[in-house]
Amino acid sequence: MTLPLNSIEHLSQRLQELHVRTRETPLFNPVFQLGLDLSRGLESGTLDLDGLEALVEELECASLNARTSRLSRLIQPTGPQDAVTATSEDDESFETFQKRWETPSLHAVFTAHPTFLMTPTQTQAVADAASNGAKIDCAKELSGAARPQVTLDYEHGEAMAAIAHAQTARSAIVREVYEHACGCWPKQWKLLRPLPFRFATWVGYDMDGRTDIAWYTSIRFRLSEKAGRLAGYADELAEIDSGHALIEVLRGASEHATASARDFAGDLSEPKALSEAANRLTADDPAKLTTLNALIAQLEEEAECETENAKAAALLTVASAMRADGLGMAHVHFRVNAKQLYNAIRVHLHESPQLDLSSKGAVATLRGMLAEVTPKQTNFASLAIESSTATRQFLAMAQILQHIDSDTPIRMLVAECEQPSTILAALYLAKLFGIDGKVDVSPLFETEEALEHGGRFLEALCAEESYQEYARTRGRVCIQTGFSDAGRFVGQIPASLAIERLQGRLAQAMKRNKLTDVAALIFNTHGESMGRGAHPSSFADRLTWPMSPWARSRFHRNGIELEPEVSFQGGDGYLFFANDTLARATLNRIIADSPPPSEVCDDPLYQRTDLSLDFYRAIRAHQRQHLHSQTYSRAVTAFGLGLLNSTGSRVSRRQSDISADRDMNLRQIRAIPHNSILQQLGYPVNIIAGIGSAADGSYEELSALLVQSERGRQLMRLAQTSNALASIKTVAAQGELFNSAYWASRPYRGTEPHLSGACEVLAEYLTKDDRTGVFRRLASRLRVDALKLHRLLDQLPDEERFGFDQDTRRMIGAAQALRLALMQHMFLRAVSVPAFSRANDISREDVLEMVFSLRIDDALGQLRRAFPVEFPSPSDFAMDAPADYPDAETEGYDAITRDYIDPIERAYALMLRLSVAIANQFGAHG
Questions:
Q1: Residue 120 burial by CB count (10 A; 0-12/13-18/19+): exposed, middle or buried?
Q2: What is the mean pLDDT of each run of 10 residues along the chain (926 residues)?
Q3: Taking the model in full, what pTM does it have?
Q4: Who's near 457: CB < 8 A, 6+ residues apart?
């Protein structure tokens, strides 16, 4: 090797050289070899951590440019942004135009999923570059060295900023709708009530699996959102007419809400504090607004009388925003799980408290309870003393609807919902507290069992007369589908096909039970990565992957109005709305790429079920084998969560001790970190695996079907995009870190004599480690399946085949190799730490196991406890009595900290920055 390896270009060239050697030796691993080259340079002194940090900064910058390119390609922010004219036809009637713009193209939900991958500075750089069509230049301030702590308040602030940009973009579109209509239909245009988008959020309201959100935190957020939105309305009116009478009304109401938000920001666990805060909020006050109906009517009346068209359009635009958002930044979604609801409803099962809530008897019992329930009056004291999480959520909604915003409906999402009795229990609580007319209860389907039996669930639910009455009152049937957990448990492609089948079953159930007079609101909760349901090819694919033309046609042919809803999750999702330019481009893209309503879908994938069903079932079976395999589970959990940064306020897994890490179950890890680990290991198993094996034996016939089918081509676009970033060699390289023979052989023949002692310790310790064998077995299984996948891809015509972007692959390979070198550096430093210390109760083996499973913060804490740099000194005390013992100041372990502990800490910090760079190349975290 002659390259100095001090730039990314050198690493890329070295990878190309090493790749050639795989022709000579098929088992040769270029990624691991480059990692060894870098490790040798680092341990010999020809490279140092400063030099490696410079390489990390280059890779970070390259990854930010990759994110910029992806964002620009998806939403085209520098192109034309006139969605109104682009979607209008020359001979279009006013009624057709009106129907299109008064029906939302999409409901967008801003969630707090832990995908805050990039730092605020990095996010702004990507947003600015995409908005201006520019390239990001490397700079120190763009490194990921300083990451903010992602708290719930941080997430909420980011969500509100993204929603504010979305509101600005929506208002710009609404204004253009009015201007276009004014020119085409001068006598009718003021009758328009455009509502192109509706926004929602659950940040601060999601209690599923969380105990860290107090009920008064949700109230505080809701009040602060109200204050912010009212101030925004006032500012918009001031731009139209600085003397408008409603400005003072709106600002007074905003100040009232701000004061109440401050009241609910403190600790309200004491009755006195809560009583004072609650009484101020609930008291009659001329500044208090709980409805905007009168203000909307006033603005629309003023616009009708206004002779200046531009001013009338501006007034109607503000009224449209009020109609869309109400007294908040967005609609809110509360969320609980089925177990929480079961615990809540048992209190009300007076005659049969031991009733099995999954039985048919439970449905009959709840049916009777719904018929007889009498609404109860509640206040904040009712909320404060309630111990049940689910009941507390309903009580919080009741207080919001009574004292904060009486107009805007609230969604109640129910996770882990597998029985109709769960929904009836939620309806009972809503009716008990008098809010059933303003709350949309929505079951979530995301587990394998829920997707498998969801059709029967929906049929039984829609057949219930009490549910039918409720649905007609609300005007819609709501369900939620989850692509993250579904993709984790059955694979992303089988999950998407199972979800569209469930969507079709809902249309069938609504038709059979005569519910075609209400809308179907389907909230498809997908993430921003391929592994969690975000199709990467285009925004058109992104919109139709979670709800296909076939699923949509089931509703259209039955005359059921469809309300599609999707999520923009956490920091990665908010990137689409990071500024007004991106937000406008995103909304325009949604309008342009949303599929038109059609009652017919003649895609052959749904006609040739002899092939397509077998294909689906075979992929699902293959994915299930991985999920239940000890090999796969051990590989995914080999490093715990140590390859990942903290990207959200929600805990990613339950706590466990050192011994539990070795036997960690995949269900202990949530969907986002699970997918993130697959990215970091180098192969998105839950996207690609099983496709090749499912095609085995019918390559020609299946490939012909996939090419003829638009859904099939879309499926293969996802698979090929993911496969273009995947590397089985990288998977195998992870396991070689734990290869005892590698460490024993590394200083062989005197090449690295200064490492012989450390390598010997590592070799001896790792003789009992299982991870090398685990990764080799997994790589072998993936390779066999990949060979079959490539045979299938070879059958596709050239126009349907994707090439590999070798520059991107080498960027990822360089990052992986650099991380392997840093891990080896940590391993070598860890085994070189002296065995004894002042705090000698610490087990050396425990510390090593922490390092090998990348629990670095825990390991560093133990090492610093064992080797403190400072000790108590007699001079620290002001003693009157003399002493001459000890006779010298005790010295700390500065040299050990400098030579071992600090380098481990720094190497790990660089590792985590590389993880961000790798995730950026994949397009999103998780």
A1: middle
A2: 86 96 94 98 96 97 97 94 87 95 97 94 98 95 91 97 98 97 96 98 86 91 98 98 97 98 94 96 97 98 97 98 98 94 91 78 92 96 95 97 98 93 96 98 94 95 97 98 91 96 98 98 96 96 98 98 97 98 98 95 96 97 95 95 92 51 70 95 97 97 97 97 97 98 92 95 96 98 98 94 90 98 98 73 86 96 88 83 74 87 98 98 94
A3: 0.95
A4: 418, 419, 420, 443, 450
